[in-house]
Amino acid sequence: MKGVVFTNLAEMVEENHGLATWQNILDKAQPPSGGVYVATAQYADEELVSLVVAASELLGVPAPELIRLFGHHLWQFFGKNYPQFISDHDNLFDFLVSVDSVIHIEVNKLYPNASTPDFKYSKDNPNELVMFYRSPRKLCHLSVGLIEAAAEHFKTDMTLEHPVCMHEGSDHCELRVIIGNG
């Protein structure tokens, strides 16, 4: 996993809970890197898992919720550092369907060897988009947070349903984004 994920996790914890809390998380997780992260470097996925587990325990926040909140934080990072990923789109659905075909391609240019999740889409009516998420990392809750933050950015009232999940034994997650009355 790219170091930019780790540097942003550290930033989120430090901004919300202080540097001492981040240090306590590192002490508890004992990451192989020693907790020193370079945005362009590659780190083992397991290192992120150990940090999330430690943060969850120390902060008293369930891991899925912590990862969802991290999605909100990453949205701010992407918006600040890569505004073109967002500004090219007029609405939530246009943005979401660009994630796999445009944004992930650009992410891989910026961060070679990045392993992005795979999304497929289904849109049977104008008020609903179904996103099918697949990733060996199973960070679907990160996608949920990013989608929620995107909806806020595009000023879109939406409901997000997650009826199928890899954490419950499925080979994919289904994220249903419903705007308005659906």
UniProtKB/TrEMBL annotation:
Organism: Pseudoteredinibacter isoporae
Top-level taxon of the source organism: Bacteria
Name used for this protein in its record: Putative hydrocarbon binding protein
Classification via SMART domains: V4R
GO molecular function: heme binding
Any matching Pfam family: HNOB
4-vinyl reductase 4VR domain span: 118-179
SUPFAM superfamilies: Ligand-binding domain in the NO signalling and Golgi transport
